[in-house]
Design brief:
220 residues, alpha+beta, Alpha-Beta Plaits, 7 helices, membrane, protein tyrosine kinase activity, GNVR
Length: 220
Amino acid sequence: MTLLELLTLLRKHLKLVIMLPIVCMVAMGLASVLMMNDTYTATTDMYVLASSEGSNSSSALSSDLSASQMLTNDVATLLQSDRVMSDAADQLGLPNLRGYDITVTSESTTRVITLQVTSSDAQGSANVANALADCVSNVAQEVMNVESVNVIDEAPTPEAPSGPNRMLYVAVAAMAGLFAAVAIVVLMDVIDTRVRSAEDVEELLELPVIGRIPEMKGGR
């Protein structure tokens, strides 16, 4: 099937090609509103202060510059450890932190750690983020060569939801509906074996058409 033939088929079934994506968009929009809860992301930034920073020697500063980046990555990993999460849950009076999506990012060129906590509870996300930042400082001082993990910005209570991205889901549903419409049109053409024109007769019989009988309307 050539592109021109496909376009002709789509034009012939234009109503289906237009309506199916619209139906998919509406269905996905309703599903995202009725079945998907809003989620809220609370963010806090922390700065890792190594114990050796109190020294003024150049060798100590040079050593700290190279080691502190690795130490920051260790603290970022520690944030997601069972001990820190358990301490944070105890501090908040929660049995555990299930239901909270915790994301920790640490750049290789800085000692700043970014912690994001996402859940369906805006205030709960902020409380968990701040509790984790507080608990990781205590644990890091105990088990690592860290003077403190200082909070740069406490996590505020998010005012607007961070997800789900309903517009993206609707756009994907529209594309899926369009592809489905094209597939249905092509399938309908493939399974339809009726002869509609002289060109179909020539293709089936491999014989030239030498005459045509015009359609008679309203006559004898």
